[in-house]
Specification:
With 641 residues, the protein is α/β, with parallel strands linked by helices. It has 20 helices and 16 strands. Helix 1 packs antiparallel against helix 4, helix 15 packs across helix 19 and helix 16 packs antiparallel against helix 17. The protein is elongated, with a radius of gyration of 42 Å.
Length: 641
């Protein structure tokens, strides 16, 4: 029986006891109101004719005298009283014997509304608490004790984040053998903050700590501390640390700590709102007058910038462990972990998949393996091949194919030349990333795209690489103008225009790549919207400087557009070859595009059923808007928004 059922049972028992006591007192009081007489006196009154009427109920007899005075008496056994009374002409009535229970039931029925109200009140109190801590357990912690028998995770299941794992391995080692560190004066860290983008494995790391440490592990979310009642969050923090002290040494894991640890003083309630009181209590518990030896707090967040500075100082969160997106070697290790449960074909090369997924987090890679397994099962295969992984990667990065979408032949031809313009510029720009794939098959919201993958993970971006990317982005619109004329250009280059504008602006204002403006950062004027109009709130740039910034952005955009136009005019034959191949096969990989640009015969890959992937006669398709592809992959796509 759960706690809620126990509470209801207790209230029912208390109610029954109260009803029984009430019934006893009611019965005793009712009996005292009747004048009791001896049975012999009762017979004497009968013989004297002083009895007017009687009522017999079992061995009890009650009635009234001729003067109207009530009386009460008990009848001895084996006494034929009814005959005697009839002989005297007295009116005699008989009633059935009552066992006393109907009185209790009647009281229960009369008390039923009150009992129902009490039960409903208890139910709603439990719902508002969101837990099972008793009717008045608002301040009880919602931390759950994670046992090692349920979904145990160890450091063997964590890959791709070796530096973060080594930091936490030291914490686990301290918990297992504290004397090793204490003999040199070392103290156990009070808090470890895991910081990183979503999906990088922060929660998985915390589970691995629980699996490796062999100590009690409490887990709770930061939102569990914030309630509508003032003081509840602080009470739950106190109760959580009390539980930790009872189970010391132990680990307490708070997920999404930014829900309760934001900067103080920014709320409408000043310093008295519930979230700030909860944070204050956490700060005191972590490093106050009372010591919490043996209780290590592990927290995770992807927004360290909003946390209160007092929470991040040494003595509270002594360590901040960064959990970044994995590099190529890390991605390969993560893929191997997730592929353990998947039957793989012999052609699957994990290193190739890791190279082709820059910017992917651990969660993205897990989704990639899952999508590949689903695609293989949909085809009825017994294992997962490289073809399924490539299809899954395209689906995750670019969206699902929409072959049923209707386009006219002119729109399809324009899309092919648009993507061919991007591809040719990329091939003849040495600083550009190599082309991975070009397609005119609609995916997601895009009508077509050219995907380029870096040869390795990039930490910074060189100036020649930036200009190469800008030229590639201009290639689509220029190809449309060259082949169809300026009057026939479409809105498909809108995403390319946004990319060129944003990159050029950052080159001028943030990265110091403008000779006129020099090695300075220029912030844009902050704007405030009032009654639908943009009103300047703070002026960070003078009018003259803002004009120079705009001119430099225009100069960079015009320069890369002019360079890209010269390149496409020079390689117009290659542009036509790539576009015609896209119209015929719809999708080309990087080697096929390189061969076409070099004048070599393009190699045709065979599909699983040994038939070339030649496109069927295209259906008519209607263009729709598109957006850029997901992630940090550099893509160029036609956009009709």
């Amino acid at each position: 029986m759960n706690n809620f059922g126990k509470n209801i049972a207790v209230w029912v028992i208390i109610s029954l006891v109260l009803v029984a006591i009430f019934n006893v007192f009611q019965g005793s009081s009712s009996q005292n109101t009747t004048n009791a007489i001896a049975y012999s006196d009762f017979l004497a009154r009968v013989n004297a004719g002083e009895v007017r009427e009687v009522s017999i109920q079992g061995d009890k007899i009650s009635g009234a005298s001729s003067s109207g005075v009530p009386f009460y008496s008990l009848i001895p056994k084996e006494e034929e009283l009814a005959n005697k009374l009839s002989e005297k002409g007295i009116k005699v009535t008989s009633e059935p014997i009552e066992n006393g229970m109907p009185g209790i039931f009647s009281v229960l029925i009369s008390w039923f509304p009150m009992l129902l109200f009490i039960g409903v009140w208890i139910f709603f109190m439990k719902q508002m608490q969101g837990g099972s801590k008793g009717a008045m357990g608002f301040g009880k912690s919602k931390a759950k004790l994670l046992t090692e028998h349920r979904d145990k995770v160890t450091f063997k299941d964590v890959a791709g984040i070796d530096e973060a794992k080594s930091e936490l391995e030291e914490v686990v080692e301290f918990l297992k053998d504290p004397a090793k560190f204490q003999k040199l004066g070392g103290k156990i860290p009070k808090g470890v903050l895991l910081v990183g983008p979503p999906g990088t494995g922060k929660t998985l790391l915390a589970k691995a700590v629980a699996g490796e440490a062999g100590v009690p592990f409490f887990t709770i979310s930061g939102s569990d501390f914030v309630e509508m009642f003032v003081g509840v969050g602080a009470s739950r923090v106190r109760d959580m640390f009390e539980q930790g002290k009872k189970n010391s040494p132990c680990i307490i894991f708070i997920d999404e700590i930014d829900a309760m640890g934001r900067h103080r003083g920014a709320g409408l309630g000043g310093g008295n709102d519930e979230r700030e009181q909860t944070l204050n209590q956490l700060l005191v518990e972590m490093d106050g007058f009372e010591t919490n030896e043996g209780v290590i707090l592990v927290a995770a967040t992807n927004r360290p910038d909003v946390l209160d500075p007092a929470l991040l100082r040494p003595g509270r969160f002594d360590r901040q462990v960064v959990v970044p997106n994995p590099d190529m070697i890390g991605r390969e290790k993560i893929l191997k972990v997730h592929m353990k449960k998947v039957p793989l074909s012999s052609d699957v090369i994990t290193k190739t998949l890791a190279r082709g997924t820059p910017g992917f987090s651990g969660a993205d890679l897990a989704n990639l393996v899952n999508e590949a397994a689903l695609l293989s099962a949909r085809k009825g295969r017994n294992n997962v091949s490289m073809i399924e992984f490539e299809e899954a990667k395209d689906k995750v990065m670019m969206g699902s194919e929409r072959r049923s979408m209707v386009m006219t032949e002119d729109e399809r031809r324009l899309t092919a030349y648009h993507e061919a313009g991007h591809a040719v510029i990329a091939v003849y720009s040495p600083a550009s990333d190599p082309i991975h794939k070009a397609t005119i098959i609609p995916r997601g919201r895009a009508l077509g795209m050219v995907m380029r993958l870096p040869e390795g993970d990039r930490v910074s971006m060189a100036k020649d690489k930036l200009f190469a990317d800008l030229r590639v982005a201009c290639g689509g619109r220029i190809a449309e103008e060259m082949i169809f004329g300026k009057e026939k250009v479409t809105t498909g280059a809108s995403s390319d225009i946004r990319m060129v504008t944003d990159t050029a602006r950052r080159m001028v204002t943030e990265w110091g790549l403008s000779e006129k403006l020099g090695f300075l950062a220029y912030e844009a004027n902050e704007q405030e919207v009032f009654l639908g109009r943009s009103v300047s709130q703070q002026k960070n740039l003078s009018d003259n400087t803002a004009s120079i910034v705009d001119n430099e952005i225009r100069r960079i955009a015009d320069s890369v557009y002019s360079d890209a136009e010269k390149m496409l005019k020079k390689y117009s034959k290659q542009l036509k070859k790539v576009a015609e191949a896209l119209l015929e096969y719809e999708t080309l990989d990087g080697k096929q595009i390189q061969d076409l640009c070099k004048g070599l015969k393009m190699s045709i890959k065979k599909s699983v059923d040994n038939t070339p992937p030649k496109a069927k006669k295209p259906k008519k398709r209607a263009g729709i808007p598109s957006t850029n592809a997901k992630g940090t992959i550099v893509t160029n796509e036609i956009d009709n928004s």
